[in-house]
Structures are given as structure tokens and as C-alpha cells.
Design a protein that fits this description.
The chain is an alpha/beta fold and about 270 residues long. The chain contains 8 helices and 8 strands. About 45% of the residues lie in helices and about 15% in strands. It is globular.
């Protein structure tokens, strides 16, 4: 494998950290950029991944993904050091039990699971295009429910599970749209459900007994990131390592257009940029 630059968000624990370790081991020449929102955990994770892989090209980037300003600052810092990115894994997520509102006073799951990867991906797209052929992997969920555009932040009868499942449908819808936008660029964009109730902090914080290992989720992410079988596969949703179907709204072009308009407005991006 040629030297690559790889960014994994939410990589200070669980699936993201395991995926970072595996990628560093598989490609000893790669520069692995990991993101986290807690500086102490981020610094510790950088040191642990270096020690576990003998790869000293591990860099940490700090941002709270409920703040679009922090997402922008992180993207700017990354681009100041790296002009090409071969692989972006949008792994960071907020679960059922996360606080209702984040730093931007936006519903946390919608901000972290959709708005942040939407903004980050578009900001990094020039570097990803430069690295083409390149891949973008978006971590979604098998738990999906339709988005109600008249109540995008779930203000009425708030429920953390519904907010989560709507946000995960949103990232799938973004995947489909972005794949279409990039279809002639040499960049593939796919999403996946990494597994049901895996042994991660997010699941345990929700009070749910884990049903599978975090490593199995990391293996699924790496399949989408590295498998030669997927060289020309784009715009698809995978249930772990098997191509599958999301719920119907994901394939509705009008709904995806509305969602993109929301994303552009709430992140401060505009049509001229994208």
C-alpha cells in the first residue's frame, strides 16, 4: 500500500480507536489522523496507538462535534498540514443518552451524527479529491426513522431514540447525495450499520447490554474502507459487510434535497461552495 493520509473521527475509544489501530498496522507508512473531543483522552489515544502499532505518524485533532465552529477549526488545522486525504471515516457519533442540546444549542444527535460530518466532509473535499482514488465511509445505523422537516430538532415530544434514528437516516441520505455528486471523481462514498448494540461506550451509557464486540464493528468499517471488491461501489448502505437497503425516505430525492438545504443553512455552507 502506498503512503496514505487517513482521518477517523471519534477515534479515542471503541470502534473508531480499534479501526485506527488496525489501519496503522495494515499500512505502516500511513499517517493516521484521529479525532476526539476530550484532550486527555485524545493525547492518551495517540500515544497508545503509536505504542500498539510502531507507527509514529499518528496525529490527534480536537473538536466537539456539537459545535460547527470547532468542526471548522479542526478542518482548517488538518488542511494546514495535509493537502491530500485518502480515506475519511466519519465514525464519531452521539447516542440515545447524550445531552439533549450541544454547544450550538442544536439537538445533539442531529448535530454530531449529521451536521458535523456533512460540514467536515465538504471542507475536506478538496484534499480528498486530490488523493483520488479515495474513499469516504459514513457510520450510520440499522436504527432509522423518517425525518419530519417541520420538526427537524425533535422539539415536540422529544425522545432520544427517535432523535438518534432520524440523525442516522440523515447521514445515509447525505451518503447517497454525495456519491452522486462525486460519481466521476474517483471518490466512493458508502455508509454502514456496523452492528447491533456493540460493546461501546455509547451503548453502555444508554443502559443497553452489548450484543457484539467493538472489534466486529471496526472490521466492518475497514471492509468498506479497504476492500478491493468495493473499488467502484458508491452510494450504498451496508448492514455490517453486506449491501442492504435503508428505509424508503433515504431514496426520496425531494427529501434528500430538503435535508441538504437544512445542512447548508445550519452549517453555514452555501450552494456556491458545494
Amino acid at each position: 500500500m502506498h503512503p496514505q493520509t487517513i482521518l477517523i473521527t471519534g477515534a479515542t475509544e471503541g470502534i473508531g480507536k480499534l479501526a485506527a489501530i488496525d489501519l496503522a498496522k495494515k499500512n505502516s507508512n500511513a499517517t493516521i489522523l484521529i479525532h476526539g473531543r476530550n484532550k486527555n483522552k485524545l493525547d492518551k489515544s495517540v500515544a497508545e496507538i503509536k505504542a500498539a502499532t510502531n507507527n509514529l505518524r499518528i496525529e490527534g485533532y480536537l473538536a466537539d462535534f456539537s459545535s460547527m465552529e470547532e468542526v471548522r477549526s479542526m478542518a482548517k488545522e488538518i488542511l494546514s498540514k495535509h493537502d491530500s486525504i485518502d480515506l475519511l471515516i466519519n465514525n464519531a457519533g452521539a447516542g440515545f443518552a447524550a445531552p439533549r442540546y450541544g454547544k450550538d444549542k442544536t439537538e445533539t444527535r442531529f448535530a454530531v451524527n449529521y451536521l458535523a460530518p456533512f460540514l467536515l466532509t465538504y471542507l475536506l473535499l478538496p484534499a480528498i479529491k486530490k488523493a483520488a482514488p479515495a474513499r469516504i465511509v459514513n457510520v450510520a445505523s440499522g436504527g432509522q426513522s423518517p425525518i419530519h422537516f417541520d420538526d427537524i430538532m425533535c422539539e415536540e415530544n422529544f425522545n432520544g431514540v427517535t432523535a438518534y434514528t432520524r440523525s442516522k437516516l440523515a447521514i445515509i441520505m447525505f451518503t447517497i447525495d454525495l456519491a452522486e455528486e462525486l460519481k466521476s471523481s474517483g471518490i466512493t462514498v458508502n455508509s454502514l450499520h456496523p452492528g447491533t448494540y456493540l460493546d461501546t461506550g455509547m451503548v453502555r451509557e444508554s443502559g443497553i447490554k452489548p450484543l457484539g464486540t467493538a472489534q466486529s464493528g471496526a472490521d466492518a468499517e475497514l471492509y468498506l474502507a479497504l476492500s478491493p471488491e468495493l473499488n467502484n461501489v458508491t452510494g450504498k448502505y451496508f448492514n455490517v459487510m453486506k449491501e442492504s437497503k435503508a428505509i424508503a425516505q433515504a431514496y426520496d430525492a425531494d427529501s434528500r434535497k430538503k435535508l441538504k438545504e437544512v445542512g447548508l443553512k445550519l452549517t453555514g455552507l452555501n450552494d456556491d461552495f458545494v
